[in-house]
Amino acid sequence: MTATYTFDVFTSLDGFGAAGGNWTGYWGKQGPELLDHRLALYDQEQRMVFGANTYRLFAQMLAESTEESDVRDPWVTRMRHLPTTVVSSTLEGPLDWPDATVASGDAVDVVARLKEESDVPLRSHGSLSMNRALMAAGLVDRVQVTLFPVITGQTGEDPIFQGAADFDLELIEHRTLDGRTQELIYRPTLHV
């Protein structure tokens, strides 16, 4: 049996994974329910999968952060201590991540092998271009979208699905967190 792969992503209503300007982490919309839910998600045994750019971004944000910043929220700390595979043709180990290994090669090949070999579910938070390629290859079993109640039309950065293939999405789970943030979990199928 192959391991389940979840593409986990935060987004604004207009489809951006981040924003510039005076927006803060979580677009300033985090609440206790969201943070507790995220912590519980990372309490489960699983393996993280990141592309090189996302790994570099996380490592830089953590290095530049203080104990009080959003970057050090308990769920992020827990995520950082999970076994992690970083897919990269440019990075070499050891990485500044407690239990991370580098897998060189094409992400589609690396993740296909991980899905066959892993005894635990696989999860990727971010890694947009890598996950778009994995979706097109049929390797993403779940797309977990945390939708924050903001529109970042002027300051939006990192369009999540720009350049992606077309997909039909089957809603398999949903919840509202803190009365405003939506979590939607879909099963993607390439639209033909």
Structural account:
By secondary structure, this protein is of the alpha/beta class. The protein has one domain (5-190): 3-Layer(aba) Sandwich (Dihydrofolate Reductase, subunit A). The protein has 5 helices and 10 strands, in the order E-E-H-E-H-H-E-E-H-E-H-E-E-E-E. The protein has helices at residues 32-41, 52-64, 74-80, 107-117, 128-136, and strands at residues 5-12, 16-19, 47-51, 84-87, 100-103, 122-125, 142-148, 156-159, 167-177, 181-190. The strands form 2 sheets. An 8-stranded mixed beta sheet has the order 5-4-3-6-1-7-10-9. Strands 2-8 form a two-stranded antiparallel sheet. A hairpin with a 3-residue loop joins strand 9 and strand 10. The radius of gyration is 16 Å and the shape is globular. It starts with a strand and ends with a strand.
List the helices and strands and how they pair.
Layout: E1 5-12, E2 16-19, H1 32-41, E3 47-51, H2 52-64, H3 74-80, E4 84-87, E5 100-103, H4 107-117, E6 122-125, H5 128-136, E7 142-148, E8 156-159, E9 167-177, E10 181-190
Parallel strand pairs: 1-6, 1-7, 3-4, 3-6, 4-5
Antiparallel strand pairs: 2-8, 7-10, 9-10
Helix pairs in contact: 1-3
| Total domain units | 1
Euclidean distance between termini CA atoms = 26 Å
Unreliable segments (pLDDT under 50, ≥5 consecutive)?
Answer: none
Strand order of the largest sheet: 5-4-3-6-1-7-10-9
Q: Write the element-wise H/E pattern from the N-terminal end onward.
A: EEHEHHEEHEHEEEE
Helix content: 25-40%
Name the shape in a single word. Answer: globular
Structural class: alpha/beta
Radius of gyration: 16 Å
**How many distinct beta strands?**
10
**Percent in strands:** 25-35%
